[in-house]
Amino acid sequence: MPRHTETRVLPYTPDEVFALVADVERYPEFLPWCLAARVTRREEGTLWADMTVGYRLIRERFSSKVALEPPHAVRVEYLGGPLRHLSNRWAFAPAPGGGCTVEFCIDFAFANPLLQRLAGAFFAQAFTRMVRAFEARARALYGPRAA
C-alpha cells in the first residue's frame, strides 16, 4: 500500500490554494498523467468526479466523492475504479509569517497486482511531481510571490 505525505509552505493564502485544489475539472490542464476530469454531481460542500489517468499504455478511470471544507481541507473518498482503496487529503492553514502550510496525504492500493508493483516502483517520485505541478499552477494563477 503506497502512502505519501508531504508538507509545503507556499506564498499564497489558504483560500487561493484551496480554490486551486477544489477546481477538479481543471486538473488535466496541469496535472501529470491526468487525461480527463469531470464533475458528475454537485451538492453543497461535496462533488462527485470521474478522473481518467494514464501513463504510456496504461489508462484507468476512477470515481470519487470530494468533500470541500473551505478554506481548510479537501478530502477525497474513493467510489470505484481500478483501486482496492484510495484515501486522499489536502489540508491548508495560515503559515507563520504569511502564506499557507499545505499538507498532502495519499494512501492507495491497486486491485491489480501488476499495477500495484508498477506504482510502488515510482510512487514517491510521481507524487512529488504532482505536488510540484500544483505549486506551478499556483504561480501561474496567482503570480510569483516571496515565501
Describe the structure.
The protein is of the alpha+beta class and about 150 residues long. The chain has a single domain, classed as 2-Layer Sandwich (Alpha-D-Glucose-1,6-Bisphosphate, Chain A, domain 4). The chain is built from two helices and seven strands; from the N terminus they run E-H-E-E-E-E-E-E-H. Strands 1-7-6-5-4-3-2 form a seven-stranded antiparallel beta sheet, with helices on one face. Helix 1 packs across helix 2. The radius of gyration is 15 Å and the shape is globular. The model has no long low-confidence stretch (mean pLDDT about 90).
Overall pLDDT, averaged? 89
Main-sheet strand order equals 1-7-6-5-4-3-2
- Helix percentage range: 25-40%
Q: Helical element count?
A: 2
Give the topology, please.
Blueprint: E1 3-10, H1 14-22, E2 34-43, E3 46-55, E4 58-69, E5 73-80, E6 83-94, E7 100-110, H2 113-142
Antiparallel strand pairs: 1-7, 2-3, 3-4, 4-5, 5-6, 6-7
Helix pairs in contact: 1-2
Q: In summary, what is this structure?
A:
The protein is an alpha+beta fold and 147 residues long. It has one domain (3-142): START domain (Alpha-D-Glucose-1,6-Bisphosphate, Chain A, domain 4, 2-Layer Sandwich). The protein is built from two helices and seven strands, in the order βαββββββα.
